[in-house]
Amino acid sequence: MLPPDLRPGMADALLFDLGRVVIDIDFVKVASRWAAHAGGTTDDIAARFVRDEIYHQHERGAVSDAAFFANLRTQLGIDITDAQFLDGWNAIFVGPMPGIAPLLARAADKLPLYAFSNTNQPHIDHFSPRYADLLGHFREIFLSSSIGLRKPDAEAYAHVVQAIGVPAERIVFFDDLAENVDGARACGLKAVLVRSTDDVAAALEALDV
User: Fold this and answer.
1) Closest to 151 measured CA to CA, from 122, 128, 119, 124
2) N or C: which end of the chain has fewer CB within 10 A?
3) What Gene3D superfamilies would the database entry show (predicted)?
4) Hey, how many other C-beta atoms are within 10 angstroms of the C-beta on 22?
5) Would 119 be classed as within a structural domain?
6) Is residue 71 located within the same domain as residue 118?
7) What are the average pLDDT values for consecutive 10-residue runs of the chain, which has 209 residues?
């Protein structure tokens, strides 16, 4: 559901999550690759995977890749190498979300675009060159492992709002997770829950962007 007050002229900047808003991702592909390396099943590995505090700290850049993979080795009960974990970890990326590229190109002609993603350095190293054209629409990209802050923490939104340099209420934020949308709204941003690119298109139409 779109915020009821989206209207032409009410935004000075647009802020986009990356995963499942700009770039499609699929964790099943990760679990499948790890299962192939470990000789297990995709379903078993996916069921054991937990986004625990080590995962969150890895996204804040506070835990090394080696420590993150060591935690996964214990959590998942599989004994594969760091290189094999990395191979599966980066298999998550599917490609651009269908239809998002022309929407971003059109919006960028009218308003400055920014991105804010909870992510980690291996993923950044992987997606940045592969989606350079798509990511080129953004004036700045805020990445949790680079800024040391992650959604939905209020400090993270405050950091991004300050860096963008416009009032929070003049920023429209797009994210696929309800907890991140709720966190953004609590910090004064206008926020759109994205279930498909159609939700982005509808919001941009309401904004006349």
Assistant:
1) 119
2) N
3) HAD superfamily/HAD-like, Putative phosphatase, domain 2
4) 28
5) yes
6) no
7) 88 98 98 97 97 98 98 98 98 98 98 98 98 98 98 98 98 98 98 97 97
Helix, strand, coil % over all residues of the chain, rounded to 5: 55, 15, 35
pLDDT for 73: 98
Task: Report if residue 77 sits inside a domain.
Answer: yes
Q: pLDDT of 21-73, one tens digit each?
A: 999 999 999 999 999 999 999 999 999 999 999 999 999 999 999 999 999 99
Which residue, 92, 109, 134, sits at the end of a domain? 92
Q: Which residues are known to be catalytic?
A: 17
Structure token pair of residue 8: 């032409």
Query: Rounded to the nearest 10 degrees, what angle do helices 121-130 and 82-89 cross at?
Result: 50
C-alpha separations of 97 from 19, 111, 176 in Å: 9, 21, 12
Q: What is the CA radius of gyration of the chain?
A: 18
Q: Does this model's pTM top 0.90? A: yes
Domain identity same for 102 and 51:
no
Amino acid letter for position 128: S
Note whether 104 and 194 are same-domain residues. yes
Residue 146: its pLDDT value, please?
Answer: 98
Sign of the Cα pseudo-torsion (76, 81, 82, 84, in order): negative
Question: Does 160 lie in the same domain as 114?
Answer: yes
**Same-domain pairing of 188 and 203:** yes
**Could you tell me if 192 and 121 lie in one domain?**
yes
Strands 190-193 and 113-117: unpaired
